[in-house]
Specification:
- With about 260 residues, this protein is an alpha/beta fold.
- It has one domain: Rossmann fold (3-Layer(aba) Sandwich), CATH 3.40.50.720.
- The protein is built from eleven helices and nine strands.
- It has a seven-stranded parallel beta sheet, with helices on both faces.
- Helix 1 packs across helix 9 and helix 5 runs parallel beside helix 7.
- About 40% of the residues are buried.
- Bound molecules: NADP nicotinamide-adenine-dinucleotide phosphate (NAP).
- NADP nicotinamide-adenine-dinucleotide phosphate binds next to helix 1 and helix 8.
């Protein structure tokens, strides 16, 4: 459970996967949920199936201009919390470093977070409660991963942005960055490599909401993968020269 008191909460990435589960569970707790993604049909099905109050706000988080007034266009005057789950993943296919793809991924995963914060900050400031920004990052930003030049860098940028924003909002708005491991969603269904400790989106949303209720700076799960990757961070030679190199070769990287 995230909060006993009913709150006004905006969830992005709510048409599928983690964001949809977060929106459904928050609505089930009795919160007033505003749900965003590009796919209006999927949002309509969420509004229909949710056991609670969900309003669909279709939008593209990478569209700077449209995002600036998106919330006021829907008559929303105040927000208590936002869960920024919108994201995309595309992998680099060496030897091609595709600049359009790198920009596309950054537009959603990094600039989408910036646009969402710009849209929500005035409404969070109007709430009489201490408000809360929760952004979904990724463990891929802990270390360099094979083929994740675009995805991992966009996640490192968004988590740095939120960490920095936290410094400037201290005492006013709490900021939590979430670092999930592998979660079974349409995003990971495309992966053709082993995904250790894979979890369901339902379980991931439960963990995110329960831990977010305490408003920590960071949430990392599953803890076994988190600890394993933290160990690799203190042994970068082992990670880059042996393990990541082997993973890259297994995924068709350079021999
Ligand atoms: N699954 C994992 O293992 C995993 C691990 C670590 C982190 N994450 C992160 O968790 C978040 C949710 O991912 P997921 O696994 O649940 O993937 P997903 O099922 O593909 O969900 C992604 C969501 O983001 C929305 N979205 C994508 N681009 C958008 C855009 N430009 N504007 C607005 N909405 C957009 C999608 O909706 P529309 O297509 O309808 O717009 C969808 O609702 C992402 O930030 C992802 O990077 C996932």
């Amino acid at each position: 459970m995230y909060s006993k008191a009913p709150l006004s909460i905006w969830v992005t990435g709510a048409s599928s996967g983690i964001g949809r589960e977060v929106a459904e569970q928050l609505a089930g707790e009795g919160h007033n949920v505003y749900a965003s993604a590009r796919n209006a049909e999927s949002l309509a099905s969420l509004v229909h199936s949710a056991k609670g109050n969900v309003t669909a706000i279709p939008c593209d988080v990478s569209d700077d201009r449209a995002m600036a007034d998106i919330l006021s266009n829907y008559g929303i005057e105040t927000l208590d919390s936002i869960f920024l789950c919108a994201g995309t993943c595309e992998y680099i296919d060496m030897p091609v470093l595709d600049i359009d793809m790198v920009r596309r991924v950054a537009d959603t995963n990094y600039f989408g977070i910036v646009n969402s914060c710009i849209a929500a900050l005035p409404l969070l400031r109007k709430s009489p409660n201490t408000t809360h920004i929760v952004g979904v990052g990724s463990m891929s930003s802990y270390l360099g991963f094979p083929r994740a030049e675009a995805y991992g860098a966009s996640k490192a940028a968004m988590s740095y942005f939120l960490d920095s924003l936290r410094c400037d909002l201290v005492g006013e708005i709490d900021v939590t960055v979430v670092y999930p491991g592998f979660i079974k969603t349409p995003l990971t269904d495309k992966n053709d490599f082993p995904m250790p400790f894979l979890m369901t989106a339902e379980k991931a949303a439960e963990v995110i909401l329960k831990k977010s209720s305490k408003r920590p700076l960071k949430i990392s799960f599953p803890s076994r993968l988190h600890l394993l990757l933290q160990a690799m961070k203190v042994m970068p030679g082992l990670w880059y020269n042996t393990i990541a190199a082997r993973m890259s070769r297994a995924q068709g990287g350079q021999q």
